[in-house]
Give the backbone structure.
Amino acid sequence: FHQAFFDLYSSFKPYHNRLWVRADREFREHEQVILETRSGRKRRLAEDEMRYKSNKDVSEKWPKKTIVYNTPVQSLASDGLKQALVFLWPQLKALGAYPVNLIHDEIVVECKQNRADEIAEILENAMIDGMQCYLKKVPVVVETKIASSWAEK
């Protein structure tokens, strides 16, 4: 699966390599790594986030690369979601609709059934606008679904 991903998205491998080399060098020099999101939020990684420790030999350690690779991507999604909520809230409030759950990159909104199509369009636009605050060159695609319960999601 790992190789198939890189075969499909070949530009990610050099990106991952650059990210890891920088993080590893920074960790070796300063015993911590500061990763910054596009919005300016910072995440500090110390040894526990950067290195696995062997249960058999505590001096044996090896890199935890996944956290370094995922932080910029997941943080970007989080920043876009938060910005979408900023755009979304005044419009929803005016229409009597409310966000009732946030799941990673999803927003669940509760509204009256006769407003569902209108709210879905508002939600989609807010999520696109929220991500476009941080992604200037990448097209943002959002899918909305109208359901009468979360089970239908």
